Fold this sequence. Notes:
This protein is α+β, with helices and mostly antiparallel strands. The protein is built from 1 helix and 8 strands. The protein folds into 2 domains: about 1-60; about 65-205, Porin, CATH 2.40.160. The protein has one helix spanning about 5-60, and strands spanning about 65-75, 80-95, 100-110, 115-130, 135-150, 150-165, 175-185, 190-205. The relative contact order is 0.14.
Amino acid sequence: MRRRPFRRVGDLYVHWILNWKIQARLKLEAARLHFVSATNFLLLGPLFLCSEMAFAQSVNKDPVAIVELGGAAGWSLKNGGSSFGADAAVEVTPIENWLELEAGVTSLFSRHHSTEWNTDLLFKKPWTLSKKAELMAGVGPEWVHTREPGMRANSIAGEAVLDFMFWPGGKHKFGWFLEPGYDYNFARGHERSFGISGGLLIAIP
């Protein structure tokens, strides 16, 4: 009868050892599962994020710049003379939906053997009318170089324009534009003129 307390103590000790081993194994298994989950998150999380970003960029990717190539015409509001030539410009978007910058060169030739080169920098506010149409209003400075028989002159002018852009495909790769404008020359005589240009739009991805 005196050995029963010792047996009970032994049984309790064995039971405690088994319970401790089971708890240790469960904690080890839980730690392993947690490590595997954390590893999967660290490995697969960036891949998933990169794939989402790549998908978003592919869907909402805008062109780096837009090239405008076409013809131009101008009419003097002072003496009624007219001139015709070519127009080329590059347009970028520093602030989406708020500001677009356009740098362009226009060459105009008149009947009196005079040539006028206009170099401008326009600050435009864009509005999206639809997936295929855009409207912009802009103003900016303009440098005017005029060459006539026996005379050359340089002057500064101000320009205000409306720019209509049309993208037939809706993907903004190729389109066409129409840009009427008003010029005011700050040189002596204060020449005022109305001009219009139009042509092809080419998006640079």
